[in-house]
Amino acid sequence: MKFIKGADRELGRQLIHAIVAVILIGLLFSLDRYKFMVLLFFGILFGSLIINWKSLGSRVPIADWFHYRFERPDARFPGYGSAWYAIGVLLMAVFLADVSKIAAGIVVLGIGDAVSTIIGLLYGKNKLFYNPKKSVEGTLAFFAASLVSYLFIGPLSLVLAAISALVESLPVPLDDNLTIPLIATAILYLI
Fold first, then answer.
1. 110: helix, strand or coil
2. pLDDT digits over 90-142, tens only?
3. Extents of the domains making up the chain
4. What are the CA-CA distances from residue 150 to residues 48, 99, 157 (Å)?
5. What is the pTM of this model?
């Protein structure tokens, strides 16, 4: 196992990524789809206000705590990844009518992506030939962790996990908290 400077911050960030996914899936099944979308909308609105306040230099104690402990140093603005994560989940909830498919998409986004980063940081030795920032080990971990979506959509999870793992590994300029929900939504909508 290797140690990378700043790895503790990233590991904590990915743990939150996965925990939020589990909470969102619980909320999705506790509320109906429309209430879930309303909750996400107001969460994004509230989060946007916090991002604005922080960008203007205001102190927001809880947001400051998360920012200083978990935000990536190269983030474009405070809460950048979190904003795309919430928007990605809302995108899936808007375009997918079946809550089981939405839950499967959240598994891929929140758990598959988190596990891939953790495994890639700790054990990633073999870089992908088309993206040296990603590892074979991380991509395989993404695929394996995304198979948890089987609980919600059955055998379709193999297609979802494989294509989502490939998309996550590509060197695209968009945040993967947006690209993963986009591809997951497309797959789950079309099949």
1. helix
2. 999 999 999 999 999 999 999 999 999 999 999 999 999 999 999 999 999 99
3. 7-190
4. 33, 14, 5
5. 0.91
